[in-house]
Amino acid sequence: MLQIGEMAPAFSLPDAEMEVFDLTAERGKHHVVLYFYPRDNTPGCTRQAADFSDHEEEFARHDCIVVGVSPDDCLTHAEFRDQHGLSVRLLSDVEREVCRLYHVWQPREVDGVKKMGVVRTTFVIDKEGVIRHTLQDVSPRGHVAGVFELVRKLTENAHGNRQEQRGNA
What we know:
Blueprint: E1 12-14, E2 20-22, E3 31-36, H1 43-54, H2 56-60, E4 64-70, H3 74-84, E5 89-92, H4 97-101, E6 105-110, E7 113-118, E8 121-125, E9 131-136, H5 143-168
Parallel strand pairs: 3-4, 4-5
Antiparallel strand pairs: 1-2, 3-8, 6-7, 8-9
């Protein structure tokens, strides 16, 4: 599992519009909430994506963007987004390379059957590309509020550190 304080592994993936999202391009610009989910149109995944979409402006006020990743293809993401009025960017990892890179592609037991799947996991990555929080095997209910609080504290700490540095200069 990736550790807090490590650099987030770089990747590029297409979104629902088939435009490429490059995590490295966000360095110095935005904090990133990167959440991995099993698949589009399941109750938990729909709740999570809708909650993140409903609070996207609040995240943006803290210089944070939210992106979701699943093994679904771009067209499935577009249908999912349109059907549920989602605004967060959904990235397609059909080959599961990024899921493996972030160690969220793991053996799972569903209804007594063992198979590989995505463990619902969220990473909070700061503007420098450092993983600041990792939340694994999360429940969609109430998850977004908890993630927002982590982002809020992250930006408060960043502002506080800058003010301290100015005061000590």
